[in-house]
Design a protein that fits this description.
Length: about 110
């Protein structure tokens, strides 16, 4: 790419800046309070205890109408103080969830 003038270079810089700006979408006003809460929890760390006693810790990615949840960058603990086993992305069936804790430190917002 060649530039014939300072104006061309300036325009190219503005275009590159626009491409690198994050796309932020405002929350729709018609969301229910529950859906707003779920949106606030996206990207926060969850600690999930499942029926067989395992503890899964990972970043909340999504859920569905059956209460299944997906955690990214998930680690599995067999005991409270045990060594973690890194799992990556994990889908946890809602029927196996005993409890969920949201990490308050991963965001400054109040729950």
């Amino acid at each position: 790419m060649s530039f014939s003038s300072v104006e061309d270079l300036s325009e190219a810089g503005k275009l590159a800046q626009r491409r690198s700006e994050p796309i932020v979408k405002a929350l729709p006003e018609n969301l229910t309070p529950g859906r707003r809460k779920l949106r606030c929890w996206l990207g926060r760390y969850f600690r999930v205890v499942i029926t067989d006693g395992r503890i899964l810790v990972g970043m909340f990615n999504c859920t569905d109408k059956d209460a299944n949840i997906v955690l990214a960058m998930c680690a599995e603990y067999l005991k409270e103080d045990g060594e973690p086993r890194i799992l990556g992305n994990v889908m946890i069936p809602g029927k196996h969830i005993v409890s969920i804790e949201v990490d308050k430190r991963s965001s400054d917002e109040d729950d």
